[in-house]
Amino acid sequence: MGLKGFLEGGIASIVAGCSTHPLDLIKVRLQLQGEAISPSVSALRPADALHGATGMTTLRHHHPALTPPRRPGPIAVGAQILRAEGPAGLFSGVSATLLRQTLYSTTRMGLYDMLKKRWSAPGDGGSIPLHRKVAAGLIAGGIGAAVGNPADVAMVRMQADGRLPPDKWQRWDINLGHYNKLSKSLPAKLANTFK
Question: Is residue 61 part of a domain?
């Protein structure tokens, strides 16, 4: 009974995650465009364009010579991946996607199903109040996110490798040792973020 929710939710999420992986890869590559841009262009970023020593915010004047270079859109990025890495390049990092969906979505779907069944009154037809559905979703989603986060980090790192020259690729290997290493280092990194 409880295992059914884990299996159905997990399999559906794995198929969906692997099917949409090329779109996710393109999204990550688009997000990483211009990661190392020059100081003259970084002055045009919205957070940097607003400044003022007196505490008042002033806008810099737009200067045509400082316009940032035109960045390719999603179709151009997809075509660039196909040219540089071939069709298999669109599935760069799919093993981490598979692991992420196996851990995150299976946990999330299965726990939600279990909590919903546990909190429904017998003979009630399985209906539960909205506040319990919300609580079940929050609990299941939170636990699923904690379980799947290291695989998500590995997935983004694997997807980002493709923008580097092939000799600089880190060749992420998805296995339990890597997952264990990521899950141990993540709390320390998060703690350093909030210092």
Answer: no
The pTM for the full model equals: 0.62
Q: Identify whether 145 is part of a domain.
A: yes
pLDDT in tens, the chain (195 residues): 467 777 887 888 889 998 999 999 898 888 888 665 445 444 444 444 444 444 444 455 555 556 666 788 899 999 998 998 889 889 888 888 888 888 888 888 889 888 988 888 777 666 888 999 999 999 999 999 999 888 888 888 777 776 666 666 665 555 555 555 555 665 565 555 444
Range of the domain at 178: 2-33+71-193
Q: Per the structure block, which two tokens stand in for 130?
A: 């909205």
User: Quick check: is 55 in a domain?
Assistant: no
